[in-house]
């Protein structure tokens, strides 16, 4: 009986220190490409994404960025260029394998943060015709933040 009580107390105490990570995406109003859905797995907060090309040209790549947001501030946690092939006005799903859940929990733990957000955004788009769109003026463009979904 004493051992069970001690184990239960230990489990409750250790869960109080577990870092909670919520995963969400951010869209910029002027972006020609939007993240319309994200899928997670036990390993990645963003296992795959579905993007919609609202532009008039086919796209050949997107640069994705994950910002780790907590009470301690923001920092870039992951960034990657993903080759894609999406025609104008088309919606497609791609595997990205970003936002490693355990790595983000360790980052929160090292920053002594009990909870944090992992925010995925499209920071640039490369078009098949060689042109490029970049999100470089953050203060001039208000992001649209959809509701967050709790981490697994």
Describe the protein.
This protein has a single domain (18-131), classed as Immunoglobulin-like (Sandwich), CATH 2.60.40. Residues 1-17 and 138-147 have low confidence and may be disordered. It is built from two helices and nine strands, in the order H-E-E-E-E-E-E-H-E-E-E. A hairpin with a 4-residue loop joins strand 7 (115-127) and strand 8. By secondary structure, it is an alpha+beta fold. The chain has helices at residues 2-16, 101-110, and strands at 20-28, 33-39, 44-53, 59-70, 73-86, 91-100, 115-127, 132-134, 143-144.
Task: Give a brief description.
With 152 residues, the chain is α+β, with helices and mostly antiparallel strands.
Give me some keywords for this one.
single chain, 2 helices, three-stranded antiparallel sheet, elongated, 9 strands, alpha+beta
Layout of strands and helices, then pairs:
Blueprint: H1 2-16, E1 20-28, E2 33-39, E3 44-53, E4 59-70, E5 73-86, E6 91-100, H2 101-110, E7 115-127, E8 132-134, E9 143-144
Parallel strand pairs: 1-7
Antiparallel strand pairs: 1-9, 2-3, 3-6, 4-5, 4-7, 7-8
């Amino acid at each position: 009986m004493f051992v069970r009580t001690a184990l239960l107390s230990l489990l409750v105490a250790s869960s109080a220190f577990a870092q909670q990570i919520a995963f969400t995406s951010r869209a910029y109003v002027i972006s020609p490409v939007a993240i319309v859905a994200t899928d997670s797995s036990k390993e990645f907060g963003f296992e795959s994404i579905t993007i919609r090309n609202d532009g008039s040209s086919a796209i050949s790549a997107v640069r994705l960025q994950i910002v780790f947001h907590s009470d301690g501030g923001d920092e870039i946690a992951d960034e990657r260029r993903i080759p894609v092939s999406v025609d104008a006005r088309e919606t497609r799903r791609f595997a990205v394998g970003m936002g490693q859940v355990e790595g983000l929990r360790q980052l929160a733990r090292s920053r002594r943060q009990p909870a944090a957000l992992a925010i995925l955004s499209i920071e640039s788009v490369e078009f098949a015709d060689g042109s490029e769109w970049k999100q470089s003026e953050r203060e001039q463009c208000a992001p649209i933040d959809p509701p967050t979904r709790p981490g697994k």
